TrEMBL record:
Catalyzes the oxidation of 5,10-methylenetetrahydrofolate to 5,10-methenyltetrahydrofolate and then the hydrolysis of 5,10-methenyltetrahydrofolate to 10-formyltetrahydrofolate. Pathway: One-carbon metabolism; tetrahydrofolate interconversion. Residues 132-274 form the Tetrahydrofolate dehydrogenase/cyclohydrolase NAD(P)-binding domain. NADP(+) binds at G158, R159, S160, I224. Homodimer. The gene is folD. Keywords: Amino-acid biosynthesis, Histidine biosynthesis, Hydrolase, Methionine biosynthesis, Multifunctional enzyme, NADP, One-carbon metabolism, Oxidoreductase, Purine biosynthesis. Belongs to the tetrahydrofolate dehydrogenase/cyclohydrolase family. This is Bifunctional protein FolD. Residues 4-112 form the Tetrahydrofolate dehydrogenase/cyclohydrolase catalytic domain. GO terms for biological process: L-histidine biosynthetic process; methionine biosynthetic process; purine nucleotide biosynthetic process; tetrahydrofolate interconversion.
Length: 275
């Protein structure tokens, strides 16, 4: 089975639309500078917000914005009761202090699940703010296609705070047995081949081929990379080699990336509903 993300996203969008009709959700998108990847993500997100009925306030700052101006803007967004969710593009220019900025957003408005408070909620399995959208997108995808993780051996490759680490905790809360791998993991192939579910979030384009996988597995590719040679988006696994081997697999594009945006918008609608 090919696990298409757009079908999952559609189901989430329907829930968001119902919530958005009840309230008037407002998302602030904070962008410093004009990075092409930020601009392209922003365009996609704004389209989705328009479709769902979520208002967007674009907060755009110059790359040379002072620390004082930047944090005072975040203060005003945190305090503005008309704004329900804040998405801040990262990484920010280094002088703005990425760690401080990540934790500066009120957890009630942290719809991207980036603050330590939101992450603590994921790690303790108690609802504080919202989970990181990418990790949640993986869980929603498995749930949508009735792939139960209970008692399954799940291997996650990649331990970032946006994907692998929170996902390992979410899987654990759903009673999976989780192995979290990274660049210092020995014999990665032997570990991934024995898993029932493998999630790959390494940021290394098409770096895992069929020799990492085995029959009967479910493979989730979180990666989004632009392949200059093929002139298309590719995942972190080599799809054409892996797809014939395994039972279930997410494509790239039209996989996890399609769900992530929908989750973010859903979080904004939930935040508006809390008021
Ligand atoms: P990071 O670079 O922050 O983290 C990558 C992780 O993978 C690190 O933990 C690193 O290990 C590990 N890793 C890298 N190479 C290897 C390797 N050869 N073997 C084992 N582990 C390895 O990346 P992100 O988590 O931010 O992103 C991962 C991918 O997901 C990217 O392709 C990105 O584009 C995509 N992405 C997709 C999203 C979506 O919505 N679908 C959203 C966000 C990201 P170590 O810790 O040891 O360095």
């Amino acid at each position: 089975m090919i696990l298409y993300g757009n079908e999952v996203a559609k189901a989430i969008d329907e829930k968001s639309m119902t919530l958005a009709k009840r309230n008037k959700p407002v998302l602030a998108i904070v962008r410093v500078g004009n990075k092409p990847s930020d601009l392209s993500y922003e365009r996609g997100l704004m389209k989705r917000c328009e479709k769902i009925g979520v208002e967007v306030r674009n907060v755009i700052m110059d790359e040379k914005v002072s620390k004082e101006q930047f944090y005072s803007k975040l203060d005003s967004l945190n305090q503005d009761t008309d704004i329900h969710g804040i998405l801040m593009f990262r990484p920010l220019p280094v002088y703005l202090d990425n760690e401080k900025a990540r934790n500066y957003i009120s957890s009630s408005k942290d719809v991207d699940g980036c603050t330590n408070e939101s992450l603590a909620g994921v790690f303790t399995n108690t609802p504080v703010g919202y989970a990181p959208c990418t990790a949640q997108a993986v869980m929603e995808c498995l749930d949508h296609y009735d792939i139960d993780v209970t008692s399954k051996n799940v291997v996650i490759v990649g331990r970032s705070l946006v994907a692998g680490k929170p996902l390992s905790m979410m899987m654990c809360s759903k009673n999976a047995t989780v192995t979290l791998c990274h660049t210092k993991t020995k014999d990665l192939k032997e570990i991934t081949k024995k898993a029932e579910i493998v999630v790959v979030a390494t940021g290394q384009m098409e770096s895992m081929d069929d020799t990492y996988f085995s029959k009967g597995q479910t493979v989730i590719d979180v990666g989004i990379n632009y392949n200059e040679i093929k002139q298309k988006l590719c995942g972190d696994i080599l799809y054409e080699k892996v797809e014939p081997v395994v039972d279930n697999i997410t494509p790239v594009p039209k996989g996890i990336g399609s769900i992530t945006n929908s989750i973010l918008v859903y979080h904004v609608c939930q935040a508006a509903n809390q008021n």
